[in-house]
Specification:
The protein is mostly helical. The protein has one domain. The chain is about 50% helix and about 0% strand. Helix 3 packs across helix 5, helix 5 packs across helix 6 and helix 5 packs parallel to helix 8. The N and C termini lie far apart (about 105 Å). It comes from Metallibacterium scheffleri. This is Antitoxin Xre/MbcA/ParS-like toxin-binding domain-containing protein.
């Protein structure tokens, strides 16, 4: 065996035997779909639907990347909403039930499910600054405008 073969490989090039069990920072309990669903007052089927995963994923694959991403994003939005005041219960109710006119009357829960967390956080930043115009234009801005304005008749046209 030559001297070169006996050298230890550089630590950067060795593979670690440890694996990461959680894609998000924090304790394993914070990544548990059951406790997350319980904290929102929903069942696992509802969580799976909004996380866009199969219904059995929260039970059989609790560390699924899409499920963990949804829970992490929802937690981020909920934490930001809690900071705005009213407490955790009010933030949870807002997240699940309040239709937002700026986003074509989607709830924050639906926005997170669609992966539009950045727009939602930008909106919440504006709310925090008391600037309700802070939301970015949405893909459905025309539909939201059409829903919020009455149809204009031909009141100004001359009668024939």
């Amino acid at each position: 065996m030559s001297r070169r073969d006996r050298r230890r490989p550089h630590p950067e090039f060795t593979m670690s035997c440890t694996t990461r069990t959680s894609p998000a920072a924090g304790s394993t309990a914070s990544n548990d779909p059951r406790s997350f669903a319980r904290s929102l007052g929903i069942n696992l089927r509802h969580l799976a639907e909004y996380a866009n995963v199969a219904p059995e994923t929260p039970t059989l694959q609790p560390l699924d990347a899409r499920l963990q991403r949804y829970m992490r994003d929802a937690r981020t939005v909920l934490d930001r909403a809690t900071r705005l005041g009213g407490g955790r219960a009010a933030a949870r109710d807002w997240f699940r039930h309040m239709p937002l006119a700026t986003f074509a009357y989607r709830t924050a829960e639906e926005m997170v499910s669609e992966g539009r967390v950045g727009e939602l956080l930008h909106y919440l930043d504006g709310v925090e600054r008391w600037d309700t115009r802070a939301a970015l234009p949405t893909r459905d801005a025309g539909a939201a405008f059409a829903l919020s304005t009455p149809a204009r008749g031909d009141d100004d046209s001359p009668m024939a």
